[in-house]
Each structure stands twice: as C-alpha cells, then as structure tokens.
Amino acid sequence: MPAAPCSLIYLAYGSAALHAEAVYSLLSYYRVARPAAQVLIYTDAPAAFRQVLGERPAVHYPAVTPAEWYSWRGSSNKVYLLKIGVLTHAAQHYPGNLLFVDTDTIWQADPAPLFAQIERGQFVMHVSEGRLATGNELSRKIFRRLRGQIFKVGQREFAIDSATVLYNSGVLGLSSGLAAQLPGVVALADELYAAYDKHMMEQLAFSMWFGQAGAIAEAAPYVLHYWNLKAARPLLTHVFEQYAPHSLQAFYEKAEALDLAGLHKSEMRYRALPGWRRTLLKLVGRRWRMPALGQ
C-alpha cells in the first residue's frame, strides 16, 4: 500500500435503495482488498448502515450538516455535484489518497495499484467512454450543442471540440493535495449545466478538467460499474432487506446470485445494437428486460 493513508469513499444520500448497493459493493471490496483501506460512508442515515455492518473501526460516517449537503449541490442545484463536496470534505478531514466510487459497483480486484497511482499525483476515473463527438446519442447531441464554445474558470479555458474525451465518473480518485482544484470542477460543471442542462455535465466537467491536467487512469479493470441497471435496484433492495439484517454472508451470496455483472453486460450489448434492431425487438416483444426475482 502507498505511504499516505488511503480512503475508499461511498456516497449514499437520500435513497434507501443506495444502502443495499453500497453494502454489496463494500462486501465485494473486502473480498479482494489485502489489506483494506479505511472506508468513508457519506450518508444521511448512518444508523441504517451501523444496523447491518455493526461498529467497524475502519468504517467512518463523516458528520455532514443539512446546510453542507445543500451547498454541495452548486449554483446549478444538482445532486450529481454532491460527490465533489464529499471529496472536498474527505480531503480536509481524511487527507491522503482518496478513491470515490458510486454505490452501484462491484469490486473485481484489489485497487491498491490505483491508490499507488493516486499517490503519484494521477487522476483516476472509471473508464473512457470515447470521444464526445462519436459517442452515444446524448454525447453527440451535447457535442453538437456546445462545440466551439469556450468556458472560462479563473485563468483556465476549456473548449469542446472533436478531441474531447468523456470519462465515466462512477469512480473518482485524487490525492488530497489536489483537492484544491475541485471548486474549479464545480464552477465548470455549473457553466456546462447553464449552457445545456443535461445530467452528464458533471462527468464532462471532470473529464475536461482532469484531462487538461494530464492523463487519466482508468479504474475499470478493478471495479465494475453497473450504471445501466437502475431497474435492478428493487431486486437488490429486496434481497438486502430480507437477508442483510441477519447475515451479511447470506446477503452477499444472494446478491451474487442476481448476477448483476452478467445483466450489465447483457443490457450493454442490447444498448449497443443499431437503433433499427432495438426498435424491431421492441415491436416483437423481445426488448431487453430485467428478469423477475428468482428467475
């Protein structure tokens, strides 16, 4: 492990369904990490986590006031910006190497090499989604809308052009020494939201800011981010409520049986089909659907 303290950070604010995702992700982390980093769970319901996780000396629940939660949403008042507030708070109170992950993640390998890269001054994001200009329909729409516009933050300028690369922000890693740059990311995101109010402006702001500073390391080999399976939340929440209060091992085994990794890949293959094929499959009743619980 690196010399500086390492923190794995989760944000589970507002929705009880996020508790199931966070606990499942954390249990998957404990199965691959040797040794495990300290864990910071930013939540408005720490008692709900303590009820199932118990008191663990390496798991902390930083105290956040309602005013802080609100201020972290930026002038654009977006819940997506909360993770920047969380990282800023963590840098101040738990300095070292910070690795933020969304709750809808499954660890597949020990992220110690990621912490080492962070300590060397590198930024980490989940995975490159390719150039904005040639990405999915929303990416291309954003590119057409904002191409050529200049966004100024302090002395820095950012432009969207054919070379702009979008990274998924389900994982964000940086050293606490670089956290002073995070207000700039918020300012850039606020400008992007003002120019075109689409949910992914937060990840575009991170991609542009980090990308201008240097190469971005990808966390994808270490962690799976099943961002496309929001429909799986009721399934995982049902399993969580039934098993986690009594046995974390049973909950983990049942969650594994849902095969979220396989469902993620299956849905992504469907998503990658040409539009005409997806339309045809919908017409014949063969569009991709989340399987029913127990099937």
From TrEMBL:
Superkingdom of this protein's organism: Bacteria
InterPro entries: Nucleotide-diphossugar_trans (IPR029044)
Name this polypeptide is given: Nucleotide-diphospho-sugar transferase domain-containing protein
Organism, scientific name: Hymenobacter bucti
Lineage, uppermost ranks: Bacteria, Pseudomonadati, Bacteroidota, Cytophagia, Cytophagales
